[in-house]
Amino acid sequence: MFIKKGIKTMKKVLGIVGTAVTAAVVFAAPVAAQTQPISLNAGVQIAGAGSGQFERRVNANVNQEVLVQFSFANQSGERFSTIAGRVSLPSQLTFVNGSTRLFNRTNPNGMPMNDGITSNWANLGGYGPIDNDGRGTGSVSFRVRANGTGLVCGVNTLNIATSVAGYRDGKVATDAFVAYTAVDVVRQCGTDEGDRLPDTGMGAVMGVAAGAGALATAAGYMLVSRKK
Q1: 168, 174, 182: which is closest to 223 by C-alpha?
Q2: Are residues 18 and 74 in the same domain?
Q3: Are 24 and 55 found together in one domain?
Q4: In this predicted structure, what is the pLDDT of residue 132?
Q5: Number of structural domains, the chain?
Q6: Please, which contacts does 111-117 make with residues 24 or more away whose CB atoms are closer than 8 Å?
Q7: Among 3, 44, 33, which Cα is nearest to 21's?
């Protein structure tokens, strides 16, 4: 009697007419969110900024160097025999050779790495589950330079993709997780007619739309499935 009365009241509250409502639907339990097995964060700052904070995006001039860093942590609860990383750069950014360094509990001050991280998956070492003593975490830093190639007049948003994946016993154990950061490079154009956009207002509208899209891309995270 009380259940039927309660359902009838719920129908009135929800504005449902002629539709069957069951207690199972009304009182359904929420679904628990799953933890990503490897967390990944990435940021950028102007090289030489010292202990400056890493941001999702940074403004840079042509030929200026930018320091890129991505950090990861094993949240799976099990050890990964290898966590691998890879970086994808746009053609307008040049990788600075010899700048790659790996930081973890064993190498708190960083150790040099092979620069092949932009062309192949690089072995970042084995990591157990994260704990309060710094185990299970690491980071990689490297520098890039805005080379000025292929830039258009105004602001050019250059996205950097950093990826990590977990392996156990030589086999892929996770998807590849990707984080994006961005470098905004301004090209100052001259007064020649060929360097200026037509004064129709359309260039400004397109620039705002492109900038908003790039910001959403840089702030988000993307999951890319990898098949062995």
Answers
A1: 174
A2: no
A3: no
A4: 83
A5: 2
A6: 113/140, 115/142, 117/85, 117/86, 117/87, 117/142
A7: 3
The residues facing 43 across adjacent strands are 69
121 & 207 share domain: yes
Instruction: Strands of 10-110 (E only): list them.
Output: 38-46, 57-60, 65-74, 82-88, 93-95, 101-104
The SS3 assignment for 100 reads: coil
Classify residue 38 as exposed, middle or buried by CB count within 10 Å of its CB (0-12, 13-18, 19+).
Answer: buried
Residue written as token pair 């932009």: 118
**118 and 138 housed in the same domain:** yes
Asked if residue 124 lies in contact with residue 84, where contact means CB atoms within 8 angstroms, the answer is: yes
Tokens of 160: 């950097």
Reduce the DSSP state of residue 29 to 3 states and report it.
Answer: coil
> What's the CA dihedral at 135, 83, 41, 88 to 10 degrees?
150
144-156 pLDDT, tens digit each = 999 989 999 999 9
Q: Are strands 101-104 and 137-146 parallel, antiparallel or unpaired?
A: antiparallel
* pLDDT digit string, tens, across residues 52-104: 789 999 999 999 999 999 999 999 999 999 999 999 999 999 999 999 999 99
Q: 180 is in which domain, residue-wise?
A: 38-224
Task: State whether 113 and 184 are in the same domain.
Answer: yes
Q: Which of 132, 135, 139 is nearest to 117 (CA)?
A: 139
